[in-house]
Amino acid sequence: MKKWLKAAREKSIDTAALAKQTLRNRRGEGYVDTGIKILIAVVIGALLLAGLYVLFNGTILPTLTQRIKDMFNYKG
């Protein structure tokens, strides 16, 4: 019985030391950090694509279409 108690005590001390070491560990990345980085990248990419869509459909393509029509509508 004494051997069993001694083994259990040593095991609990080892487990507590391992838990303390794990909690003090500050290296590496967690799942939350990686998820937030991916979410930020997706949001920035969507904003960039939306901005380009508005720029091309609202400004560039109508002007380009009008210039092409003017170029082929030469009455001279």
Automatic annotation (TrEMBL):
It comes from the Bacteria. Keywords: Membrane, Transmembrane, Transmembrane helix. Pfam families: DUF6133 (PF19629). The chain crosses the membrane at residues 34-56. The keyword Transmembrane applies. InterPro entries: DUF6133. This is Uncharacterized protein.
